[in-house]
């Protein structure tokens, strides 16, 4: 048996997988990140640990026999976090998350250091990355940094609590803007530029490596055997690729979770920072990937449900599907948390244009769903230069993949076939279980990292694609028209503590 633990933004997901790679059980614990100021996003690392330990307590109660057979645990987590610990491994402040935009000025300052460093880091510096946020902390909270002794990423804090080891992997470190992607090692130049003390850094390993062994007291608590191997794991995007077997050349997926991604794996390193492509280390040795990263995936639809008083997103989706007759007469921007690809604009915000007295919640929701699809089309355009072949099919993973209806809109806008896999909404957690298995057993990638059974194929609708094409151009025009209005007022900027 193998456990996969995914530290997401809105929830912790844990899966228990057997030797035949069948899902035996799963649990989910909700998280509640905070936005203390506009463009800020933080969470309490102790809330992550409470969610993980509560979830494992539930599994231990319900699956006692299976938990006793667990021999490997893998980790996955939201990328780009900035978490500093003191000498006793206590968090010095709430973790600053991936969708936090406070470090815009610091990212611009790092970008001015030139394209050579950007190519080594795999991407242009952006506010959400760990390095710029650490530079912000050095400028605005210097007293806190004087107490710092360790730097960890979100899933690595859970690894620390499980094993007592300070370890990260290359795929998660890839999103810090501190890693030389080609060398798969920390960059002294980037560390100096971001004001990072090399003594803070965790041990760096490949995602499939054993990071440590489960603490005996925890093994006893959850009914596991002593010495269970805990894999280093990886960033959620790369581990999602492991979950569906997307590790070979040009294999990829569209992920629709809290954030969104368009992902293409590669066996060589191909940075393209000028186009805001993210070229990062994959969660398997000797592989990289190219990605368009969206800060707004399924989360704008959840926001519409909240704004319109709907009890849940599923109810709202059902209303949209029932009333759907074609492209919405409304036009929306989904940028509730700013946007990374293709704009690198932390100040951008959402909008809905065309409201009238007859507008319904379903109308607004459909417009926002289409806006997310248009954003994904922008991402795919960044990854595929004019004249280059476009992928004919991509996996479809993340919580949003539970909706074939939304998938049909996305497939038609992108003109790409989307393949849904069994358990695809738990992709990173399932991929983490695979990493735990590789660490524990030493099996080969070919034995373990294969495509799961298909749950369905969503073909693009050519007629719908033709109708959406001019709406995509209007979407791009709307962003350009509103961009001057999005700049954050000075009084929302951070101040020294």
Protein model, in words:
The chain is an alpha/beta fold and 497 residues long. The protein has 18 helices and 24 strands. Strands 1, 2, 3, 5, 13, 14 and 15 form a seven-stranded mixed beta sheet that branches. The longest helix is centred in the last third of the chain and has 23 residues, at 361-383. The chain is globular, with a radius of gyration of 21 Å.
The chain-level mean pLDDT equals 94
How much helical structure, as a percent, in the residues?
25-40%
Shape type? globular
User: Which structural class do you get from the secondary structure elements?
Assistant: alpha/beta
What's the Cα radius of gyration? 21 Å
Count of runs of 4 or more consecutive helical residues? 18
Distance between the termini: 47 Å
Largest sheet: 7 strands, mixed
Using DSSP, what is the number of strands? 24
Question: Spans with pLDDT under 50 lasting ≥5 residues?
Answer: 490-497
Strand fraction: 15-25%
Structure characteristics:
497 residues, alpha/beta, 7-stranded mixed beta sheet, 18 helices, 24 strands, disordered C terminus
List the helices and strands and how they pair.
Layout lengths: L1 E6 L3 E7 L5 E8 L11 E2 L1 H18 L1 H4 L4 E6 L5 E3 L9 E2 L7 H8 L3 H7 L8 H11 L1 H6 L2 E3 L1 H10 L3 E3 H4 L5 E2 L4 E2 L1 H6 L9 E3 L4 E4 L2 H6 L7 E3 L2 E2 H9 L7 E5 L3 E7 L11 E4 L6 E7 L4 H9 L5 H11 L7 E4 L15 E4 L7 H23 L9 E5 L6 H11 L2 E5 L5 H15 L3 H4 L5 E5 L3 H21 L15
Parallel strand pairs: 1-5, 5-14, 5-15, 9-12, 16-22, 22-23
Antiparallel strand pairs: 1-2, 2-3, 4-7, 6-8, 10-11, 13-14, 16-17, 17-19, 18-19, 20-21, 23-24
Helix pairs in contact: 1-7, 3-5, 11-16, 12-14, 13-14, 14-15, 15-18
């Amino acid at each position: 048996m193998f456990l996969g633990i995914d530290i997401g933004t809105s929830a912790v997901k844990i899966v228990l997988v057997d030797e035949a790679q069948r899902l035996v059980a799963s649990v989910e614990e909700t998280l509640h990140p905070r936005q203390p100021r506009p463009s800020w996003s933080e969470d309490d690392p102790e809330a992550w640990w409470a969610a993980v330990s509560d979830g494992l307590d539930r599994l231990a109660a319900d699956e006692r026999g299976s938990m006793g057979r667990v021999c490997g645990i893998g980790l996955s987590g939201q990328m780009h976090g900035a978490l500093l610990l003191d000498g006793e491994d206590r968090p010095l402040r709430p973790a600053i998350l991936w969708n936090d935009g406070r470090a815009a000025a610091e990212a611009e300052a790092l970008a001015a250091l030139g394209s050579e460093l950007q190519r080594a880091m795999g991407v242009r510096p952006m506010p959400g990355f760990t390095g710029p946020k650490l530079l912000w902390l050095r400028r605005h909270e210097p007293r806190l940094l004087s107490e710092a002794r360790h730097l960890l990423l979100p899933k690595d804090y859970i690894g620390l609590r499980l094993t007592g080891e300070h370890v990260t992997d290359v795929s998660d470190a890839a999103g810090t803007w501190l890693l030389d992607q080609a060398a798969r090692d920390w960059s002294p130049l980037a560390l100096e530029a971001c004001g990072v003390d090399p003594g803070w850094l965790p041990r760096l390993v490949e995602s499939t490596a054993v990071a440590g062994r489960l603490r005996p007291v925890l093994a006893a608590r959850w009914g596991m055997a002593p010495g269970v191997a805990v894999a280093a794991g990886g960033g959620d995007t790369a581990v999602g690729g492991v979950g569906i077997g997307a590790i070979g050349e040009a294999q990829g997926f569209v992920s629709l979770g809290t954030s969104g991604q368009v992902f293409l794996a590669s066996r060589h390193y191909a940075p393209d920072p000028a186009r805001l492509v993210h070229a990062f280390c994959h969660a398997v040795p000797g592989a990289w990937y190219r990605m368009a990263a969206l800060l707004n995936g399924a989360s704008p639809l959840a926001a519409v449900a909240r704004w319109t008083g709907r009890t849940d997103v599923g109810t709202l989706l059902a209303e949209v599907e029932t009333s759907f007759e074609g492209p919405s007469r409304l036009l929306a921007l989904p940028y509730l948390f700013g946007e990374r690809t293709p704009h690198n604009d932390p100040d951008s915000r959402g909008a809905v244009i065309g409201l009238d007295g007859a507008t319904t919640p379903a109308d607004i929701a459909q417009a926002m769903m289409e806006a997310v699809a248009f954003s994904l089309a922008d991402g795919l355009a960044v990854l595929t230069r004019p004249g280059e072949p476009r992928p004919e099919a991509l996996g479809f993973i993340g919580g949003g993949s539970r909706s074939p209806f939304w998938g049909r809109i996305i497939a038609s806008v992108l003109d790409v076939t989307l393949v849904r896999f069994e358990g695809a909404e738990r992709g990173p957690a399932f991929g983490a279980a695979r990493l735990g298995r590789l660490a524990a057993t030493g099996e080969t990638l070919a034995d373990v990292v294969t495509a799961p059974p298909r749950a369905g194929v969503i073909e693009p609708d050519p007629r719908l694609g033709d109708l959406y094409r001019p709406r995509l151009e209007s979407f791009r025009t709307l962003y350009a028209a509103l961009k001057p209005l999005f700049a954050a007022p000075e009084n929302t900027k951070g101040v020294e503590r």
